[in-house]
Amino acid sequence: MWRLLPLCLLVACVATDPNKSASVGGGAGTQQRTIRTLELPLRPPALIVEGEPSRWTFQDFNVSGWVDEQGLWSIRSEVHHARLRCATYEVGIQLGKGLLSCSNVTWLTSVEFASRVRHCNGATRIHTGGGRFMDTAVVEAANCVRVVVRCEGC
Predict the structure, then answer these.
(1) How confident is the model at residue 12 (pLDDT cuts 50, 70, 90)?
(2) Residue 101 contacts by C-beta under 8 Å, 6 or more apart in sequence?
(3) How would DSSP label each residue in 102-118?
(4) Res 51: pLDDT
(5) 112-117 average pLDDT score
(6) Mean pLDDT of 31-60
(7) Chain centroid offset of residue 144 CA
(8) DSSP single-letter state for residue 45
(9) How far is CA 62 from CA 5, 12, 32, 38, 128, in A?
(10) Helix (H, G, I), strand (E, B) or coil at 7
(11) Which of 55, 70, 91, 136 has the most C-beta neighbours closer than 10 Å?
């Protein structure tokens, strides 16, 4: 019987979460929270090919992506989930204009999310996706990008 006690305690801890709503299936009680933001400079195109849209890139240790002059964008980011319970993560970007170090930034767009991935059991997963900013004037003015990771069920 004593050998089953740790298993029973683990199940009880996983089954009850005082911060979680009683609703099931992502109802009105489900909360999303931002767990990470990262401001990065947009680097100008290294190579300009005639007839192809120019791409400004951004990169950090586990994040990379680009935005082109037509407003199309793409991102790839690793996201780590440290808990056993499952949660859903989203990764998105926001464009802004600021100093070269991306401090004192005025954000020109809202956050556009590209991926929605469910993580369980302490998993690290790669999020990829993209979208389009419709206002190309904003894209031309931007020199910084904010990468936002938010979580539902954390």
Answers:
(1) very low
(2) 41
(3) S-SPEE-S--EEEEEEE
(4) 72
(5) 92
(6) 87
(7) 16
(8) P
(9) 40, 35, 22, 11, 12
(10) helix
(11) 91
Tokens of 38: 């990262």
Both structure tokens of 44? 């100008």
The residue written with tokens 């090919």 in the block is 49
> What type of residue is 116?
R
pLDDT above 90 for 89: yes
**How confident is the model at residue 138, as a pLDDT?**
92
CATH architecture entry for 33-152:
Sandwich (2.60)
Query: Coil, helix or strand for 85?
Result: coil
- For 142, the token pair is 């931007």
State the number of CA atoms in the 13 A half-sphere of 10 facing the CB: 8
Least Cα distance to 31 among 70, 109, 87, 78 occurs for 87
pTM value?
A: 0.76
Domain chopping of the chain, boundaries: 33-152
Token pair, residue 6, equals 């740790």
DSSP 8-class letter at 99: -
Q: Which long-range contacts (CB under 8 A, 24 or more apart) does 109-115 make?
A: 109/133, 109/135, 109/138, 109/142, 111/146, 111/148, 112/73, 113/148, 113/150, 114/74, 114/75, 114/90, 115/75, 115/89, 115/90, 115/91
